[in-house]
Design a protein that fits this description.
Order of helices and strands: EEHEEEEHEEEEEHEEEEHEEE
CATH architecture of the largest domain: Roll
Helix content: 10-25%
Structural class: alpha+beta
Number of domains: 2
Number of helices: 4
CATH topology of the largest domain: 2,3-Dihydroxybiphenyl 1,2-Dioxygenase, domain 1
Number of strands: 18
CATH class of the largest domain: Alpha Beta
Length: about 270
Amino acid sequence: MTEARGSAGPNGVTHARHAPGTPCWVSLMVHGLAATQEFYGALFGWEFRPGPQQLGPYVRALLDGREVAGIGQLPPDRHLPVAWTPYLASNDVDQTADTVRLCGGTVGVGPLDAAEAGRMAICSDPSGAVFGIWQTAAHLGTAITGVPGTPAWNELVTFETVTVAKFYETVFGYEEEAAAAADLDYVGLHLDGRPVAGIHGVGSALPRDRGPHWMTYFEVADADDAVERIIGLGGHVLRPAHDSAHGRVATVADPEGARFSVIQNPR
């Protein structure tokens, strides 16, 4: 991964309207909504309140009263992968959805209105990785970053970067920055010179049971402590905590199998 933002103050960075193409929200659809709330509430200190119910029961997670993520309940007959999904900001979700189709992607849900909150669509890129599009109305998206319990970064894990990077560049207007290391297939996605997301091509190391997917990183105060708590709460460790150029990172899964990473930023 690459560094997603600059340093934050002790109370985090509070966000206003997100520029088009910026990851502005993360959402998780699960089978057991109550149990999932208990897991993430204990892990990140989140509290919850009801959100728009267009796709079924749905709650917004809050940290110190500010919205950070959403969790919804899958219908019992829908056997979809349980996964964290990033939403990318758009000024016109219908137009963006049309561009997704023209560029070889798929629009699976919407575009549709989420009550007064905004307008949304759920799509997949040509490799099959799922992402959302969000057009703001009353709900601006993630309201705070830079403190433990908030999204820190979003990264597409896929076979190879070249083809799919062109898709996101065309749809969202990103500028690409390839990794300097010759043996690393990594592309940073930038807006106005600022890194907002990344694409990591891992080839045959891509999990066979998962396929290409977006990975959300959540900031934690102590990665090793977070891993211990995840295990104690019924989650699983996919890659143990290790040091990276951007902090100490671990890749984990919640009790329903949703993969995510935790990162302890260097201070």
